[in-house]
């Protein structure tokens, strides 16, 4: 059904048309050509009023036999009755213009298109499309497209403007004919004309599902363009030079290997070899290491840092929060300080003297490894010879932040190593991360036991209290995670502060702590440290503990209102337990469940596999949220879908590689046509 048109308030001005069009991404003719329909209206036939069916969108024609303006407490309505030789239909407009009153005046012949529904007095249409029915006027010969539109931009204007663009633009096929023949795809011109003006008989179902060959052609072009843009930006990086970090002797790396209290898994050894190989080249490394919670990414980062230091260069590790940065600092310090390596801490809330000493140590080169937060990319931080930049939880940083860390160099660009505890589905990596090298730690350290996950209704919360008592009696510790800090009137969620008081009254014999986002960094750190030291039995927390907290003695994770969390977040939180040798559990307490919420919790209960969880998360959330801040600078897909078009993506990737090798000029022209400004993706 066409959307209701709401009159603007008196005196309210519309922004200039160019601004409203720019918001829709409509600046030049090619933008209009690619402004594709959201859906279609079938106005190619008329249905007698007696044969109209409730629940269907149909078109009929008749004469207005009654029309009146009716006052209601909610405002004035316009009601009319339209009749043809077979029957009558009610028409209601809750908001209307004087022109519509004129259209529906008694005696007028009108053509109505809209959703038919059961009304008080029989069948009716609410806010149908109304046209004056001219005697002998022909019906359209193609489906009528309905386009995304902004305020004050009518479908009629858009259709005319797009039709003109289709005439004015030379829609030249850049993709070679043999490739199109092989994939059984139409020409670009035919595909675009078909999508904008589908002929009578075209499958509405295939058009809406984007499975028609015309849609496949457009999706293929878009995927090819995205692959070219990312691969080309990758090739541009080869003009930069990085230090070759391949020392003949690597005493720090060797000693770190020797003194680690555990053996690396085969996956960790493979990933470290990939990093070593990259760092030995003069082209800057751009590698993402992804691994599930607890797979051992930190030790890989430490080994890469020692290799850099053995070559005489500095390394830096940047994390998104102070808690996580400090966790890295403590753990890596335990490994590296006995080797005589100078490690410096840098964060936003340091005392002036401590900060000044750290900055001086970094600038002189005395600091061999610097660990910190966003403070590392401030103008006051000058490295003597930064050879390796490590970014943890990379999706939480924007392109500009990662770039700033790399650009803090003189003549050589540092190698970049990114870490992510969120496993990335293969299709997402192939599409959005084609400019990166990706290493996967797909093996958990020996001795890690799978976590048992249970779903329990909030009504049975008291039963969970006795489980907590049992765990603490055995010398274990417990997390209890809540989604809010304080009561919200809008959503009935238990606040962390309220849960803290509740647990203290239920479990008076236990030592219970509270940590949440409203505490300052020192207070958070103090509570977390107390829990890590075993001086608290239960830690009530918000999602500030999602990443970076390592307490091997914690064996139970309770997540309250689990239905309010995303899949990746639930998986990250669950990964806070199961870090010791004892069997661990995760209890998901749920309230009212939507269909999506039910599906999400089912996935978490059924699998501990981060990659499967990530794949399902991608289905639910889409790539934009999944990638986080990285998407500023990455060409987002408008038409293709990573799950349903996975096979097409593989064809597009293979062809893009070949095209760049064999005809790079046309390949780049194709990418620019789809993603103007793609050259700016550079070191992101």
From TrEMBL:
EC number: 5.6.2.4
Reaction(s) catalysed (UniProt annotation): ATP + H2O = ADP + phosphate + H(+); Couples ATP hydrolysis with the unwinding of duplex DNA by translocating in the 3'-5' direction
Matches recorded under Pfam families: DEAD, Helicase_C, RecG_dom3_C, RecG_wedge
Stretches assigned to the Helicase C-terminal domain: 474-619
Domain Helicase ATP-binding per the UniProt entry, residue ranges: 278-441
UniProt cross-references to InterPro entries, sorted A to Z: ATP-dep_DNA_helicase_RecG, DEAD/DEAH_box_helicase_dom, Helicase_ATP-bd, Helicase_C-like, NA-bd_OB-fold, P-loop_NTPase, RecG/Mfd, RecG_dom3_C
UniProt superkingdom: Bacteria
Family membership: Belongs to the helicase family. RecG subfamily.
Function recorded in the entry: Plays a critical role in recombination and DNA repair. Helps process Holliday junction intermediates to mature products by catalyzing branch migration. Has replication fork regression activity, unwinds stalled or blocked replication forks to make a HJ that can be resolved. Has a DNA unwinding activity characteristic of a DNA helicase with 3'-5' polarity.
Protein name listed in UniProt: ATP-dependent DNA helicase RecG
Organism of derivation: Parasutterella secunda
Gene: recG
């Amino acid at each position: 059904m066409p959307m209701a048109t709401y009159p603007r308030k008196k005196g309210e001005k519309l922004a200039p048309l160019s601004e409203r069009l720019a918001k829709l991404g409509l600046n030049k003719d090619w933008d209009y050509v690619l402004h594709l329909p959201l859906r279609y209206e079938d106005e190619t036939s008329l249905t007698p009023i007696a044969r109209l069916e409730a629940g269907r969108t149909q078109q009929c024609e008749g004469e207005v036999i009654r029309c009146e303006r009716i006052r209601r407490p909610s405002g004035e309505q316009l009601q009319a009755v339209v009749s043809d030789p077979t029957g009558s239909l009610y028409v209601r407009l809750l908001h209307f213009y004087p022109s519509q009153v004129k259209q529906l005046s008694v005696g007028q012949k009108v053509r109505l298109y809209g959703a038919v529904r059961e009304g008080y007095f029989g069948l009716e249409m609410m806010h149908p499309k109304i046209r004056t029915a001219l005697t002998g006027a022909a019906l359209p010969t193609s489906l009528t497209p309905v386009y995304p539109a902004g305020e004050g931009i009518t479908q009629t204007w858009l259709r005319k403007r797009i039709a003109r663009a289709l005439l004015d633009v030379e829609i030249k096929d850049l993709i070679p004919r043999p490739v199109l023949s092989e994939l059984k795809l139409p020409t670009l011109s035919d595909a675009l004309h078909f999508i904008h003006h589908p002929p009578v008989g075209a499958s509405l179902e295939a058009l809406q599902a984007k499975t028609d060959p015309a849609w496949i052609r457009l999706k293929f072009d878009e995927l090819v363009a995205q692959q070219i843009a990312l691969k080309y930006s990758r090739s541009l990086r080869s003009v930069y030079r990085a230090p070759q970090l391949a020392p003949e002797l690597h005493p720090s790396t060797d000693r770190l290997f020797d003194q680690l209290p555990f053996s690396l898994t085969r996956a960790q050894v493979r990933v470290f070899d990939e990093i070593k190989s990259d760092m030995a080249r003069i082209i800057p490394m751009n590698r993402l290491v992804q691994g599930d919670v607890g797979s051992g990414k930190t030790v890989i980062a430490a080994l890469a840092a020692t290799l850099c230091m053995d070559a005489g260069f500095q390394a830096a590790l940047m994390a998104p929060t102070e808690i996580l940065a400090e966790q890295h600092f403590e753990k890596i310090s335990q490994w590296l300080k006995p080797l005589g390596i100078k490690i410096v801490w840098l964060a936003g809330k340091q005392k002036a003297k401590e900060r000044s000493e750290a900055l001086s140590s970094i600038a002189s080169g005395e600091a061999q490894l610097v660990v910190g937060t966003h403070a590392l990319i401030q103008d006051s931080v000058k490295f003597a010879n930064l050879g390796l930049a490590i970014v943890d939880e990379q999706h939480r940083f924007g392109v500009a932040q990662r770039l700033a860390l790399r650009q803090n160099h003189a003549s050589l660009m540092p190698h970049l190593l990114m870490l992510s505890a969120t496993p990335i589905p293969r299709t997402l990596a192939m599409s959005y991360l084609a400019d990166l090298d990706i290493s996967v730690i797909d093996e958990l350290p020996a001795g890690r036991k799978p976590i048992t996950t249970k779903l329990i209704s909030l009504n049975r919360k008291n039963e969970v209290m006795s489980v907590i008592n049992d765990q603490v009696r055995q010398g274990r510790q417990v997390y209890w995670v809540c989604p809010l800090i304080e009561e919200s009137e809008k959503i009935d969620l238990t606040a962390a502060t309220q849960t803290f008081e509740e647990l203290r009254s239920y479990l008076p014999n236990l030592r219970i702590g509270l940590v949440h986002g409203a505490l300052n960094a020192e207070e958070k750190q103090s509570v977390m440290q107390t829990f890590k030291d075993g001086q608290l039995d239960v830690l009530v927390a918000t999602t500030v503990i999602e990443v970076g907290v390592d307490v091997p003695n914690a064996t139970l994770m309770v997540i309250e209102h689990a239905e309010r969390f995303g899949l990746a977040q639930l998986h990250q939180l669950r990964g806070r337990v199961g870090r010791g040798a004892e069997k661990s559990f995760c209890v998901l307490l749920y309230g009212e469940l939507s269909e999506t919420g039910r599906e999400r919790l089912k996935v978490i209960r059924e699998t501990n596999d981060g990659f499967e969880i990530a794949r399902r998360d991608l289905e639910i959330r889409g790539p934009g949220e999944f990638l986080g801040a990285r998407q500023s600078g990455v060409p987002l897909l408008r038409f293709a879908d990573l799950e349903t078009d996975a096979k097409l993506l593989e064809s597009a990737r293979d062809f893009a590689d070949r095209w760049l090798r064999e005809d790079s000029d046309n390949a780049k022209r194709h990418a620019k046509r789809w993603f103007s400004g793609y050259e700016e993706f550079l070191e992101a």
